[in-house]
Amino acid sequence: MFTGIVEEKGLIEAIEQESTSLVLSIKAQLIMSDVKIGDSIAVNGVCLTVTDFTDNGFTVDVMPETFRATSLKQLEVGKHVNLERAMAANARFGGHFVSGHVDRVGYIKDMWEEANAKYMLISFETEDGRYFIDKGSVTVDGTSLTVFDRKEDAFMISLIPETQSATILGGKEVGDPVNLEFDLLAKYIERLITHDASGDDVTKEKLDQFGFLK
């Protein structure tokens, strides 16, 4: 489990690519202070497992399902990535609940600046629109952000100067892909109200029948 508060930008030092898998070697400093084999690290919002490490970097495997479902396959040596260690139970919890399991790859449709803010309009599939509400949460390349507006097929975010400098989002351009993870609580609520263990949907009529709407 993560928070969407990016700890540092890592550098891709090497990529070993098969047809539908990757081995990434990533240079990092801050997060290496307590890394162990088997630790989970979010790389551009994707939960990956540390398979090897040194004092200044670590290695992770990208399996076929992750390769197909995320933008990691478009990484190049020399590019930076957002990094976050799994959240600690004894620390402050900023951001929001982030699982590190990407729901969709979106694309930056537009970008503009106003005062000290950088705005981005990011596309999503129309059927995913139910996960976006004004002032709700979304994770973009592992960064916890607030939805400021939504269209039929896109949502808007605003990056403060700190987010622009501390994450890779500040260097993105129109047309770039980004990993999207929808609000985890929204997905759980949707599942609970549309399905139960017996396979029967929870409908408005059933809620009324058992007195929940009275």
TrEMBL record:
<comment type="function">
    <text>Catalyzes the dismutation of two molecules of 6,7-dimethyl-8-ribityllumazine, resulting in the formation of riboflavin and 5-amino-6-(D-ribitylamino)uracil.</text>
</comment>
<feature type="domain" description="Lumazine-binding">
    <location>
        <begin position="97"/>
        <end position="193"/>
    </location>
</feature>
<feature type="repeat" description="Lumazine-binding">
    <location>
        <begin position="1"/>
        <end position="96"/>
    </location>
</feature>
<keyword id="KW-0808">Transferase</keyword>
<dbReference type="InterPro" id="IPR001783">
    <property type="entry name" value="Lumazine-bd"/>
</dbReference>
<dbReference type="InterPro" id="IPR026017">
    <property type="entry name" value="Lumazine-bd_dom"/>
</dbReference>
<dbReference type="InterPro" id="IPR023366">
    <property type="entry name" value="ATP_synth_asu-like_sf"/>
</dbReference>
<keyword id="KW-0686">Riboflavin biosynthesis</keyword>
<feature type="repeat" description="Lumazine-binding">
    <location>
        <begin position="97"/>
        <end position="193"/>
    </location>
</feature>
<keyword id="KW-0677">Repeat</keyword>
<protein>
    <recommendedName>
        <fullName>Riboflavin synthase</fullName>
        <ecNumber>2.5.1.9</ecNumber>
    </recommendedName>
</protein>
<comment type="subunit">
    <text>Homotrimer.</text>
</comment>
<dbReference type="Pfam" id="PF00677">
    <property type="entry name" value="Lum_binding"/>
</dbReference>
<dbReference type="InterPro" id="IPR017938">
    <property type="entry name" value="Riboflavin_synthase-like_b-brl"/>
</dbReference>
<dbReference type="GO" id="GO:0004746">
    <property type="term" value="F:riboflavin synthase activity"/>
</dbReference>
<dbReference type="GO" id="GO:0009231">
    <property type="term" value="P:riboflavin biosynthetic process"/>
</dbReference>
<comment type="pathway">
    <text>Cofactor biosynthesis; riboflavin biosynthesis; riboflavin from 2-hydroxy-3-oxobutyl phosphate and 5-amino-6-(D-ribitylamino)uracil: step 2/2.</text>
</comment>
<feature type="domain" description="Lumazine-binding">
    <location>
        <begin position="1"/>
        <end position="96"/>
    </location>
</feature>
